[in-house]
Amino acid sequence: MKAVVPCYIGVDVSKVQLDIAVHTAGQVWQVANGPASIMELVVELQALAPDLVAFKTTRSGDGAGRVLAQAHLPVVVVNPRQVRDFAKVWVSYQTPASTLARCPSPGIAMVAGSAASVGAV
Hints:
The chain is built from four helices and five strands. By secondary structure, the protein is of the alpha/beta class. The chain has a five-stranded mixed beta sheet with strand order 3-2-1-4-5. Helix 2 (63-70) links the parallel strand 4 and strand 5 (75-78).
């Protein structure tokens, strides 16, 4: 029987762009932080069928996170300070989005929300 590897995705938000990393595939890319780009991102992420999308933003109620949650993606919002602390341990991961993609790994309790509370994004 083949083991199923969970798909964790990290999204780091800035005013200009979103940095996205897929932990299991090692993919990293960027999209503009705008409505059209975010809708394209939703389609891409739905195709990946992630187990969890860890979303880091310093602005509460960020539109990108809300759109992903409304598209029924399993979004959680993480605390930026805790992501930085976690990144200190995993110094080999050079982008914040890559660090976010590692955060949901089992045993790491740093998410501020849960997949069940995606409406609170």
